[in-house]
């Protein structure tokens, strides 16, 4: 079970959204600081309010607790995920802000440290930029060690010191060793002391920040060695495939590892200890492949055993008191108790954050850029909040502390400066470089400078200037073999200059005091000097050839723009000149610095002095020269630059005193072109804004506008704007500033960013984008008309010919855009009008336009539009070819073919021309006539012609559809124009029809929105004119549109038959459409699209109506309330569900659905002032939730969820108080169904907004998870699964408003319940009311507590404790207790719900007797019965079952007798070894799931064996629906997890997220404890692999098979491309037969040759055997030899084995001295897969060679009734040496603690089965070390199977494990590889090759290249965000 801290950390790392991660971060902070402050203020937004706690910090225990939480958070700073690192920095920021500010002493008050006047200043550390650049090791993106194991946190302060020393040495920063080292007086001595102190514990060497667990080795550094603990452990490096490592180069091994290697190479040593799978990869890293594992043996207890000093360092977590290898743990040994890191703790009296700073300093120099970035972010947050008294100590004078603080600041600053000089990492966002490490470190430095004395800050400033100037020669050195840095002609390193400028940028932003003028002249001069240095640096940077340097140089001056203007006015002209030259020199289209340079220009232009300079020709070039410098950038490649240019030019125009003589026709042309060709909306909007401003300026001066723009230019603009869609734009009239620029370089590198827009290529540019650009141009033309100085003849002369021409145009686009121009002109006129005279009365043009618009609306639409000409021409040729086919193909005379006309007439006015009517006739009557004339001949040809006809008819249909769409578009535009002109029509219906068609049918959302605006304007016009009817009609129509989409507004008539069920959670059937008779048929896709458009349009119209009328809407349109809620008001008037259902059934059914659908759409659009009105509807919607009709309940739930989303506080309070109680209504099913459905929709709709209400809902929903109704159960379990994920985020939120005390009290009780549900350790103690004949261990009592908790709340779960922890006993305890309690309750109350019910236990047949005897043994109050035997025996038992308490049966019996068992009601149903029902499709599983029981419980040590889908089946038994449907579960969890099964998939992140999500969802219903966690007295289990070579006979047979046809055909099946294609089942079966053959051969040739005498003889002959040899000879099966050797080593059968005696020696039996007792010290379990192998061991080995061995056997042939007796006999009789078992029968549920040695002769494909088998001996009651030996035939299929087993176990330690047991899910290469017999040399070569490939393979290199970060990843990494975070404090 995980704690709340674990869950919050998980959310921090894997939260699905930023808001989830941020919420988790804040709650983590509140959790962390609880120990330090009791009154944690919970603030919903950032907790960056004023700090209430300032004072000395004395409680060291509380701080220690805080630091332990911080230590848990820190490793996530190493994450490769930017989101995770950011979330961690938020969490740390909250912690640092919430805790009290540490102060050296309370008496100091709130002093601010400064420069101590009476003490000498501390010396600033020696820092030479030149020296560091020459000698330092560069910090790149990584050190190339990405695939090393990730690390946790350093364990102690001494480790931090070591790590820091190592990091400094690695980077050539040894001179920094003395920096900040006042406390590290004698490092070596301290480290030695530290080692001596920890000699007995498991001290570990540091885990270095780059994650390399082995000894840290760099090119020229020795590994840091550490004394081994006396009780040394042996570390053995083993490759992951399990074969002994063949190491060519032992130089980087420790001495111990080299000795180990030598021993392994000695001959005759055939048994090796091998590692199992590598440990599951830490969640802190992305895709990390684990290095070779370490495997440890238990060291001897001999205190005198020598210990080598050269031990590879291990992590603190890696060492354990007794090291045990257990494959289920993937090779790594889990700790007994995690060691607490002490690295963050500091000595009393010192600054509490000192340890944290030191640890982060180490990470700051990590080779991995993510680690550096994480450390910088954490330091930034720490210094911002807690840096004020950094480095100080308590009990020291204030002045001494000031000096200490200053020294601390200096030391830290120098380290940041080192990172500046050495960091070379750059990331790309879009097409711009970002340096995340340097940028963040500069913010961190700025945070430090907040607390630095002035003199220290000035020293830092001077170093930064030195980095920028670089006035020394620097040899250009390669970055560790990487590419050389960019170097300018002077030889400076651009990254260092870049970093220096970044530092300056942040420095001047936070320390403006450095540049401001002080009281006296000297200080003012100093400030000016600093400022001059900044300006010089910026000017130098602006002249740099590197674009990124120029960009940051410009941003340097942004914070000090005001100081620059006021203090150094003489520098302004120089700065301006540099900025302008910077812009004019940019030849490269990819320059991203343009934006920043322009922003600076725009800022400076706001100051009078700058304006004066620009206006003064003597100081600056005139703006008429400068402004055009910017024109080429208007169409720059980078969108942000294009936006910045327009804004800068806008700012130039906004300053009234600046000259405006540069505003000319070229500029207007540029702006107009920008609107036509720009794809981005924000740039288009900015351009339109600039256009408006320039026209306002031009029109403000008499005659200027008229002289600037003549009619020919206007015509050009209209011509461009009216270019038909899809036709390239004529750019002959375009103004190109780049070419216009004098002296422009024609060969300069330029990219035409507008190529696609100019070509109007509809395959590359969306139609919506083109239309948006044209509409923007039309608005600009309308504005031009509006600002024209007067509405006189010049206005008419200028605009009438153009507009009237286009209004009358036959083109759809031209008509439409002319109407848009008219509408926008009318609107703009209304805004600008100085009097109340309407436009129609002032302008004859407006009058004519309104008449033309009305005419268009009143008349029939035109027959066609010009745009359709091309389509009609194509139709002409298609129709011609169609009819000609009768002549060509059917041999009809050409004279019989009708003439279609040669000319095309789209208007249909001329005779004998081709029109659309001709086309319809051609596929209609003409075609039929020709077809009939053929009679019955030419059927084949006719079929082809008919197909052609269908194609042509479809094209004609599309033509007609397009025409209708054009009609709608033009009508809507004319109607909107007419409305805007405010003309009064004779009839309103044509206008209403025009705009309503636009609402109903327009596909383009922008144009649909324009129609919505027109609707609102028309309603306003009607209100002003007091026309009541049109608005009501419009609103009614809009409500009708909302109801046309059947998915949202179902049909009552069709759905009235459904009364049971929760429709929202059932599979949705296809939406239906009504035919003429009111019956329903499946809705066509076209109808669905149209209905969806109507609903969208109507919603947009309501948005506009709400925007226009606000809270007056219902007064303006009084009938609107009735249109929205009429159906509800009518049907629910009675207030009774039954009466309501009666009226719904008779007449109001569809009305109610319509009302609910309309409210669902309208409520989100309304003004908040109307919300109280909707409170009246809550009881009515609630009533409909209680309807008997399922469809009414569904619509009500949907609608109420939307209302809750909008009116959250009031609606959710109503839901919690009034609706949630109905979840528990046991008597009325519809009430429960409605309430459950509402809960489901609320969770889906509100998402994180539902957080404050989660606790109120979760327990009632939980109660429904065991509802008798299937639908409620499924819906409730799905809803619960969503709610339970939110629980960790709920804690700490403020109480919801207006909730009663009672409700809040109830929430607290339910929260306590949830705590128990989510954390098993918090479950209340359960007192077992009956006597149990066993003393329960602590963890077993906790298990019983948990089971009792589940039973109390009607929940069901899986007890998946490790094998051997007593699941049986815990289950018996709960059964005994609950049966007793039920009987007692019946005795007291005689209530029918407490009558006696038996419980059912279903288990494997081997265990039925075991259960029976265990119940008799432990629980005296239970009366068990075994329901087993043959069918006749069982049928006699059936009547007796109900009289017993517990019925024990097997799975097979349940399958056969399901008809009898499913009719009975059971109290508990317990499935032992419940993973047997993992396959949901088997009859057995279906039978088990049909059992009815109050409580369901699964016991399984391995709930998932082969893949995650198995978990679905288990939960489908426990809580059907909890994990969704099988297919949805497969999509959501199985596929992503299995797609990444080899860890190499691209979907690693998706797999991790799916695994985590599944883990969270099932967590409350799983209880799993591992042996090593709870059994401290259980001896270790040591697993060893014992390798055997193949015998000569086996080798011959193996090779013979490899050459056979069987292998070839098997390979063909494997290589077949479609594994899932038909027939693959047989193919796979064939492959398995082949693999099975090889498996058997590895064990014994007799298993494949059987008793076929001829085959045996032939084989011997071909193998070259001469003379007598028998197949039963054990020399043919080396496994038998190995087994004999192992048994002899165990002291079993030794004498006979050595002497070859055939009879048991009486002497040996009596001579106790020879064997140390009457029987051997060890007893053995021997596991085989096949019964035949047991037979061979028994006959060929035991009887022939080891007759003295006593043994028993247990396999499938053993009578099930006798199995328990065999187990008991073996456990109780120590004289029995061996028990022979098959894994299948003996591997489940038995307790065989009498044995202490387990030998696997054969192995299962499924590692879980082997694990379960070995845990028969390794369980409670075992007193000895358990040795497990696995016999493996070297170089064969078997060894490879073991490799696969290790892969499967790699992830078996999470609750959910996914594996790869099916052939279909295995890689082709893997399967083919199984067939090969390989030698040791081949294995070694393969391993070496793999190692080399992984080191330098191109594939790996490419894999290492990460995707570019998303555009928003670094959006917070800028000056504005940083300064905002400071001001929020």
Protein topology:
Blueprint: H1 4-14, H2 18-33, H3 60-73, H4 82-98, H5 129-135, H6 157-171, H7 187-197, E1 236-238, H8 255-265, E2 271-272, E3 293-295, H9 354-364, H10 369-386, H11 398-422, E4 427-429, E5 432-434, H12 436-449, H13 454-469, H14 494-510, H15 521-542, H16 547-557, H17 561-567, H18 569-585, H19 593-604, H20 608-615, H21 623-630, H22 639-654, H23 665-677, H24 681-700, H25 704-708, H26 711-721, H27 737-740, H28 755-759, H29 767-787, H30 793-807, H31 812-832, H32 839-842, H33 844-858, H34 869-888, H35 916-923, H36 925-933, H37 939-981, H38 989-1001, H39 1005-1024, H40 1029-1042, H41 1052-1055, E6 1072-1074, E7 1080-1082, H42 1085-1109, H43 1113-1116, H44 1120-1131, H45 1137-1162, H46 1171-1174, H47 1178-1185, H48 1190-1206, H49 1208-1219, H50 1229-1246, H51 1254-1263, H52 1270-1290, H53 1301-1318, H54 1338-1352, E8 1357-1359, H55 1367-1389, E9 1399-1403, H56 1408-1418, E10 1424-1426, H57 1431-1437, E11 1446-1450, H58 1451-1456, H59 1458-1461, E12 1465-1472, H60 1483-1489, E13 1492-1499, H61 1509-1518, H62 1526-1539, H63 1548-1562, E14 1566-1567, H64 1571-1574, E15 1581-1588, H65 1592-1602, ...
Parallel strand pairs: 8-13, 8-14, 9-11, 9-12, 10-11, 12-13, 15-20, 16-18, 16-19, 17-18, 19-20
Antiparallel strand pairs: 1-3, 2-15, 4-5, 6-7
């Amino acid at each position: 079970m995980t704690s709340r801290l674990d869950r919050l950390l998980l959310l921090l790392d894997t939260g699905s959204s930023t808001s989830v991660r941020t919420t988790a971060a804040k709650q983590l902070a509140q959790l962390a600081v609880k120990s330090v402050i009791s009154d944690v203020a919970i603030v919903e937004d950032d907790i960056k309010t004023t700090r209430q706690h300032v004072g000395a910090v004395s409680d060291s225990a509380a701080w220690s607790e805080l630091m332990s939480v911080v230590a848990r958070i820190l490793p996530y700073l190493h994450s490769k995920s930017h989101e995770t690192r950011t979330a961690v920095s938020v969490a740390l920021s909250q912690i640092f802000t919430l805790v009290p500010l540490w102060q050296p002493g309370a008496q100091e008050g709130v002093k601010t440290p400064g420069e101590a006047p009476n003490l000498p200043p501390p010396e600033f550390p020696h820092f030479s930029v030149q020296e560091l650049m020459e000698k330092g090791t560069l910090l790149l993106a990584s050190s190339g060690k990405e695939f090393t194991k990730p690390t946790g946190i350093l364990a102690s302060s001494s480790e931090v010191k070591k790590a820091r020393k190592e990091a400094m040495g690695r980077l050539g920063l040894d001179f920094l060793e003395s920096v900040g080292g006042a406390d590290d007086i004698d490092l070596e001595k301290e480290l030695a002391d530290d080692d001596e102190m920890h000699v007995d514990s498991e001290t570990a060497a540091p885990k270095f920040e780059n994650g390399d667990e082995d000894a840290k080795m760099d090119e020229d550094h020795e590994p840091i060695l550490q004394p081994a603990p006396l009780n040394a452990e042996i570390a053995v490096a083993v490759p992951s495939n399990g074969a002994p490592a063949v190491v060519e180069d032992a130089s980087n091994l420790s001495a111990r590892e080299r000795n180990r290697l030598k021993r392994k190479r000695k001959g005759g040593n055939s048994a090796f200890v091998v590692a199992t799978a590598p440990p599951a990869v830490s969640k802190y890293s992305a895709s990390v492949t684990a290095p070779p594992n370490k495997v440890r043996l238990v060291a001897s207890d001999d205190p005198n055993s020598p210990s080598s000093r050269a031990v590879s360092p291990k992590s603190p977590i890696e060492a354990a008191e007794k090291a045990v290898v257990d494959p289920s743990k993937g090779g790594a040994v889990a700790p007994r108790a995690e060691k607490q890191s002490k690295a963050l703790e500091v000595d009393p009296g010192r600054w509490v954050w000192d340890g944290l700073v030191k640890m982060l300093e180490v990470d700051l120099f990590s080779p991995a850029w993510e680690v550096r970035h994480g450390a910088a972010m954490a330091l930034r947050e720490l210094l911002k909040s807690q840096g004020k008294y950094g480095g100080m100590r308590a009990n020291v004078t204030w002045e001494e502390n000031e000096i200490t603080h200053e020294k601390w600041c200096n030391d830290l600053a120098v380290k940041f400066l080192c990172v500046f000089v050495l960091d070379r990492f750059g990331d790309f966002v879009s097409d711009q470089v970002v340096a995340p490490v340097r940028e963040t470190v500069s913010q961190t430095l700025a945070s430090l400078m907040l607390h630095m004395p002035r003199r220290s800050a000035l020293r830092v400033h001077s170093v930064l200037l030195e980095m920028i100037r670089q006035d020394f020669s620097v040899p250009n050195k390669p970055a560790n073999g990487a590419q050389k840095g960019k170097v300018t002609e002077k030889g400076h390193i651009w990254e260092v200059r870049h970093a220096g400028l970044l530092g300056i940028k942040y420095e001047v932003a936070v320390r403006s005091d450095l540049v401001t003028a002080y009281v006296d002249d000297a200080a003012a001069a100093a400030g000016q000097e600093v400022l001059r240095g900044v300006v010089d640096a910026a000017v130098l940077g602006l002249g740099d050839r590197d674009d990124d340097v120029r960009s940051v140089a410009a941003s340097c001056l942004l914070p000090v723009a005001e100081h620059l203007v006021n203090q150094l006015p003489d520098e302004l002209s120089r700065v301006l000149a540099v900025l302008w030259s910077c812009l004019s020199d940019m030849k490269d289209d990819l320059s991203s610095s343009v934006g920043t340079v322009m922003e600076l220009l725009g800022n400076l232009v706001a100051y009078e002095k700058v304006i004066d300079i620009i206006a003064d020709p003597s100081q600056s070039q005139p703006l008429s020269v400068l402004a055009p410098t910017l024109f080429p950038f208007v169409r720059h490649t980078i969108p942000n630059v294009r936006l910045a240019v327009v804004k800068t030019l806008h700012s130039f125009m906004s300053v009234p005193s600046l000259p405006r003589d540069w505003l000319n026709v070229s500029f207007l042309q540029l702006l107009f072109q920008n609107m036509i060709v720009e794809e981005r909306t924000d740039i288009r909007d900015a351009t339109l804004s600039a256009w408006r401003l320039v026209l306002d300026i031009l029109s403000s001066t008499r005659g200027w506008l008229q002289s600037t723009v003549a009619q020919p230019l206007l015509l050009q603009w209209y011509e461009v704007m009216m270019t038909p869609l899809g036709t390239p734009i004529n750019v002959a009239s375009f103004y190109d500033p780049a070419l216009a620029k004098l002296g422009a370089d024609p060969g300069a590198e330029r990219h035409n960013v507008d190529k696609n827009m100019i070509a109007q290529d509809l395959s590359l540019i969306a139609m919506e984008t083109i239309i948006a650009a044209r509409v923007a141009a039309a608005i600009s033309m309308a504005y031009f008309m509006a600002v024209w100085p007067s509405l006189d003849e010049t206005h008419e002369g200028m605009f009438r010919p153009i507009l009237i021409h286009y209004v009358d145009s036959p083109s759809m686009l031209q008509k439409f855009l002319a109407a848009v121009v008219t509408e926008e002109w009318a609107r703009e006129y209304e805004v600008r009008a100085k009097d109340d005279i309407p436009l129609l009365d002032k302008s004859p043009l407006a009058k004519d336009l309104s008449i033309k618009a009305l005419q268009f609306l009143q008349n029939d639409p035109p027959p066609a539009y010009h745009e359709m000409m091309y389509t009609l021409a194509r139709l002409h040729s298609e129709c011609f070819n169609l009819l000609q086919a009768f002549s060509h193909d059917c041999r009809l005379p050409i004279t019989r073919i009708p003439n279609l006309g040669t000319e095309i007439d789209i208007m249909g006015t001329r005779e004998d021309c081709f029109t659309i009517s001709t086309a319809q006739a051609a596929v209609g009557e003409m075609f039929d006539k020709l077809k009939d004339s053929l009679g019955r001949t030419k059927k084949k040809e006719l079929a082809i012609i008919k197909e052609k006809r269908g194609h042509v008819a479809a094209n004609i249909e599309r033509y007609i559809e397009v025409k209708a769409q054009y009609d709608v578009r033009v009508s809507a535009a004319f109607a909107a124009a007419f409305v805007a002109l405010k003309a009064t029509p004779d009839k309103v219906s044509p206008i209403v029809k025009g705009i309503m068609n636009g609402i109903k049918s327009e596909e383009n959302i922008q144009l649909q929105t324009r129609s919505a605006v027109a609707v609102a304007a028309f309603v306003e016009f009607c209100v002003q004119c007091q026309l009541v009817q049109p608005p009501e009609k419009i609103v009614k129509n809009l409500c009708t549109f909302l109801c046309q989409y059947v998915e949202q507004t179902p049909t009552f008539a069709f759905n009235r038959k459904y009364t049971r069920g929760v429709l929202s959670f059932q599979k949705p059937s296809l939406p239906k459409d009504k035919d003429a008779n009111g019956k329903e048929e499946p809705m066509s896709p076209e109808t669905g699209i149209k209905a969806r458009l109507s609903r969208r349009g109507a919603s947009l119209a309501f948005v506009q109506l709400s925007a226009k009328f606000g809270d007056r809407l219902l007064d303006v349109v009084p009938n609107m309330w009735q249109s929205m809620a009429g159906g509800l008001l009518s049907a629910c008037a009675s207030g009774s569900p039954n009466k309501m259902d009666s009226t719904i059934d008779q007449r109001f059914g569809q009305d109610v659905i319509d009302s609910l659908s309309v409210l669902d759409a309208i409520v989100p659009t309304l003004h908040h002032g109307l919300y109280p009105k909707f409170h009246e509807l809550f009881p009515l919607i609630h009533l409909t939730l209680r309807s008997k009709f399922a469809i009414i309940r569904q619509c009500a739930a949907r609608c109420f969820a939307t209302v809750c989303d909008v009116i959250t506080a009031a609606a959710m309070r109503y839901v919690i108080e009034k609706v949630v109680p109905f979840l528990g209504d046991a008597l009325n099913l519809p009430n429960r169904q409605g309430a459950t459905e509402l809960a489901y929709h609320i969770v889906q709709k509100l998402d994180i907004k539902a957080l404050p209400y989660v606790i109120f809902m979760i327990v009632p929903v939980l109660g429904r998870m065991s509802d008798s109704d299937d639908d409620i159960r499924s819906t409730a379990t799905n809803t619960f699964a969503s709610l339970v994920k939110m629980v960790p985020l709920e804690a700490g939120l403020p109480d919801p408003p207006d909730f009663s005390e009672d409700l809040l009290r109830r929430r607290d009780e339910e929260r306590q319940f949830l705590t128990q549900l989510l954390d098993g350790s918090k479950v209340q103690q359960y007192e077992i009311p009956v006597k149990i004949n066993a003393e329960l261990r602590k963890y077993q009592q906790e298990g019983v507590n948990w089971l009792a908790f589940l039973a109390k709340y009607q929940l069901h779960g899986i007890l998946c404790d490790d094998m051997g922890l007593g699941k049986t006993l815990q289950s018996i305890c709960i059964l005994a207790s609950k049966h007793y309690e039920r009987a007692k309750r019946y005795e007291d109350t005689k209530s029918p719900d407490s009558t006696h019910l038996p419980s059912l236990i279903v288990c494997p047949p081997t265990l039925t007797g075991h259960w029976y005897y265990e119940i008799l043994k432990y629980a005296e109050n239970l009366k068990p019965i075994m329901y087993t035997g043959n069918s006749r025996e069982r049928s006699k038992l059936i009547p007796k079952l109900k009289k017993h308490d517990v019925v024990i049966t097997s799975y097979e019996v349940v399958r056969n007798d399901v008809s009898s068992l499913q009719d009975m009601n059971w109290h508990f149903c317990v499935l032992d070894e419940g993973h047997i029902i993992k396959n949901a499709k088997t009859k057995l599983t279906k039978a088990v799931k049909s059992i009815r029981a109050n409580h369901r419980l699964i016991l399984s040590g391995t709930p998932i064996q082969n893949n995650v889908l198995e978990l679905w089946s288990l939960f489908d038994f426990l809580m059907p629906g909890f994990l969704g449907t099988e297919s949805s579960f497969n999509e959501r969890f199985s596929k992503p997890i299995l797609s990444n099964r080899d860890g190499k998939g691209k979907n690693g992140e998706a797999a991790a997220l799916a695994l985590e999500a599944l883990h969270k969802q099932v967590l409350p219903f799983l209880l799993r404890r591992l042996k090593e966690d709870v059994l401290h007295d259980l001896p270790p289990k040591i697993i060893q692999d014992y390798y055997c070579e193949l015998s000569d006979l086996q080798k011959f047979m193996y090779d013979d098979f490899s050459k056979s046809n069987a292998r070839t055909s098997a390979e063909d099946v494997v290589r077949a491309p479609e594994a899932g294609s038909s027939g693959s089942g047989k193919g796979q079966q064939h492959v398995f037969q082949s693999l099975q053959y090889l498996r058997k051969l590895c064990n014994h040739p007799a298993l494949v040759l059987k008793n076929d005498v001829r085959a045996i003889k032939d084989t011997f002959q071909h193998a070259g055997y001469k003379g007598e040899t028998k197949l039963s000879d054990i020399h043919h099966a080396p496994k038998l030899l190995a087994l004999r050797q192992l048994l002899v080593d165990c002291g079993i059968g030794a004498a006979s084995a050595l002497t070859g005696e055939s009879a048991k020696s009486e002497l040996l039996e009596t001579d106790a001295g020879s064997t140390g007792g009457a029987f051997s010290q060890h007893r053995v379990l021997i596991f085989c897969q096949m019964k035949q192998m047991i037979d061979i061991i028994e006959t060929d080995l035991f009887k022939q060679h080891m007759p003295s061995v006593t043994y028993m056997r247990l396999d499938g042939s053993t009578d099930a009734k006798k199995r328990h007796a065999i187990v008991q006999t073996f456990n109780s009789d120590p004289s029995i040496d061996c028990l022979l078992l098959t894994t299948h029968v003996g591997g489940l549920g038995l307790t065989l603690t009498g044995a202490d040695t387990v030998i696997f002769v054969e192995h299962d494909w499924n590692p879980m089965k082997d694990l379960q088998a070995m845990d028969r001996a390794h369980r409670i009651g075992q007193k000895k070390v358990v040795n497990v030996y696995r016999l493996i035939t070297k170089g064969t299929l078997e060894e490879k199977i073991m490799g696969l087993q290790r892969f499967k176990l790699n992830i078996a330690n999470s609750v959910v494990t996914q594996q790869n047991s099916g052939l279909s899910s295995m890689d082709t290469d893997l399967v083919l590889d199984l067939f090969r017999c390989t030698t040791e040399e081949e294995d070694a070569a393969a391993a070496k090759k793999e190692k080399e490939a992984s080191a330098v393979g191109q594939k790996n290199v490419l894999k290492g290249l990460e995707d570019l970060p998303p555009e928003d990843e670094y959006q917070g990494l800028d000056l504005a965000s940083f300064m905002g975070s400071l001001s929020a404090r």
